[in-house]
Amino acid sequence: MGGAEEVSEARERILAGIRSSLNRGRLDPETEAELRARVAAHRRNLVPARATTLDHQERVELFVTMAEEVQATVTRVTSLAAVPEAVARYLAAENLPAELVMAPDPSLDAIPWETRPLLRIRRGRAEAEDKVSFTPCHAAIAETGTLLLVSGPQTPTTLNFLPDTHIVVVRGRQVVATYEDGLDRLRAAGASEALPRVINFITGPSRTADIEQRIELGAHGPRRLHIVLVEDGQATRSV
Amino acid sequence: MLATSRTFVANARAGLANDNLQHALGLARTGFPLRRRLAIERLPEFEALRETGRSIKDHTLEHLDFYLELYESRVVASGGKVHWARTPQEACAAVLQVCRSVGAKIVTKGKSMIAEEVGLNEFLERHGITPVETDLGEYIIQLRHEPPSHIIAPAIHLIKEQVAETFRAEHRSLDPDRSLAEPRQMCDEARAMLRPRFLAADVGITGANFHVAETGSSIIVTNEGNGDLTQTLPRVHIVMTSIEKLVPTLEDAATLLRLLARSATGQEFSSYTTISTGPRRPGDLDGPEQYHVVLLDNGRSELIGTEFQDMLRCIRCSACINHCPVYAAVGGHAYGWVYPGPMGAVLTPILIGIEEAGHLPNASTFCGRCESVCPVKIPLPKMMRHWREREYAKKLSPPVYRTGLSLWAWVARRPALYHALAEIASRVLGWAGRDRGRFRSLPLATGWTAVRDMPAPEGRSFHSLWAERRK
Amino acid sequence: MRVALFVTCLVDLFRPTVGFATVKLLEQAGCTVEVPRAQTCCGQPAYNSGDRADAKAIALQVFDAFAGYDHVVAPSGSCAGMIRQHYPELFAGDPVNLQRAQELAGRTWELTSFLVDVCGTRTVSAQWDREVTYHDACSGLRELGVKLQPRQLLASVAGLRLRELPGAEICCGFGGTFCIKYPDISDKMVTDKETDIVATGAEAVLAGDLGCLLNMAGKLYRQGRCVEVRHVAEVLAGMTEEARPIGAAR
Questions:
Q1: Which listed residue, of A166, A196, B466, C93, carries a Cα 20 to 30 Å from A225's Cα?
Q2: Kind of pairing between the strands at A198-202 and B290-296
Q3: Which ipTM score applies to this complex?
């Protein structure tokens, strides 16, 4: 295309065009400072009351209801120890092979997979042949049954999209009311520099209605989204 | 994309005569409004959020230069690059330069209306690069060599039999006797055909629904997962976007996201709403190595401060299209270019000129349904009227209408003459139609009487009768 | 209250009955009604065709003709909407006339809205034994919020049963000059409307705008349907015996 000179010319012309349309030059420093402060404060706008007026347990129930409404399936267990069996049963019920690729995330280390030795597990990113993935999430948003997942060295994004079946383990304490609450958890978790490469808000399995408006699941992403909800009574924490 | 907006009337006529299209439109015409209404009924704050959405967009536009600079600095800080493009040519050139820099042969594409606007696919093909559409609707129309007829459901004009026919013709490696009777089968087939393309792509190009200045992020709102596979698997991710999609913060994005899916499909939230910031980080096991944003102006900066500024609030939800009775009658191809329906009627003349797109803002009854459902309260009929004013000033409308209108207005400004003529007309027409009560045909009104009867006047004008009765 | 009737050009030319029904309803509500002679049109055809100059000239004529009345009432949502919503927009850059426009806008009403929202009318003394369906004309609905008012009044008409029209809020395809400039599309829209009307099984269809009514009646007759078409004012004023339905033979 051309060197930096051409690039900056387009940039300067576009910015100049905007300023000219607004009948002004660059903003004065005071206004810029105000705008920067507005951005830094990132105040919430009006947030729907749907989930905010509920207590924690009600939020968990709402999360489950909304997730199931969009064809995610949910198994509820009361401890991490119960997760391997829940997963094994799910795979058998769906007639899926007993193998999965799992996020190499430390939060999953405490799951006692050795209790289900026939379950073959590989840790890493997803490859084309993988049929089932297993990941943690960063938060579970009650208002619309939405999972918040973030990318990272231990949570590769391909796990969320390549396999046909995606299983997500949600801890009760990860359930929050709103998207803003989920974002706040993310900010608190240490995004003082850039955000993670990707934040995925996932609400049910992949779908399309592109042919005659008929909804079909599993367009390109997973056709099954299964949530294992671990309600072990551990207190809600900000991280 | 080559525009055929000039032949809107013929396009519309073809659409009206197209049985498959009419069947397909029938499904959409009731489905979309119903689903939207149900979603809104579940969110009491929806009306208030429309106002908030409007003010976020207006605030951003008032300070767009600031927010664009902030946005760019954050993209760069996260390892990405912004390519500023004044024109479609500059946008295409930027994409080509990036593709060539990595020796790209195959490019997968998530849905991008900006890519349509700049004619990216044809441009890449001319330069020896194969773009593969991956959104199911876009994939179908790519196979059919058709343009999209809707901004979120590109293949909405087709019935399933047409899709099956296309798949049979194009997927020649598959068993010709296979059944393709149901959308399920076609969906599975597209999934299987496209999976290898996702994996083989050198570059992935997506659009964006929003960009966040605070973090230098782009946001895509999808349901299929193709956008995410497109932007995650290849070495390079290019975002095709335009300058007005910026919002200040993640919280502002959250507000607009609450409006978007509900307004578009009646979903609470799309299956996949993805916020992307820069290329893969050290230690990441997947993700693109490069992240590029092609930021297109194409005349948008000039709209700020004009009577068309409000159009820049558009979040491309398609609610206006889904509720428009004209769109429901003729379909999206009638509009002749990238953007159909009410938003297309306002935007198309801006982007390709009123001489080319003159019919679009005229083919409206100003019923106002579009404005009533717009999540960011764009006064669409008002802006269509502004186009009509510009056409009137440039004498672009047909002389017979201009003359007729001038005559009408001239008489209407002379009440005595007007009343005399009205009395004559009502007597003449009233007398002519006194027995039947209506006309099957009427000279000078053949447009009307070709398809409907014209009720006859009662025979006297109101003003004459009033004058008599009040004596 | 001294009320001026804004006749509307379609009522004047096609169906004075609607004008007289309006006067009757206003007088029943206790108003003194006058009909300024110096009125012709609200200027909407010019305005919607992009001819602001002529629209303004006509608007100024309307300001003069309707000066001094407590209220201005039109049996039409589109004409009342033109005055209420669009006259101020026409004079946005002209402070003196903007003020006149706003002043007039503040006292101009569509008929059923005036009766219910201003006069507090809740019932009429009419009788009409019919199954009826109702089309919500676009301007009245979306510019003026006219939705419940005609229904409230119709509910008090003895013998009248209202069946809601599916798609009542969808445009009938008249649109002023639209039906002339884009007749194919207009035809499709009015055909859909006609199908919806017939599917209700109603004996009659009513609306508050004569443009819509002429359009729908014309289509119903062309399709050979036996549905009576009337303006809501005629029914509320109990004048259904005096005038044949729109487009009906003698």
A1: A196
A2: unpaired
A3: 0.96
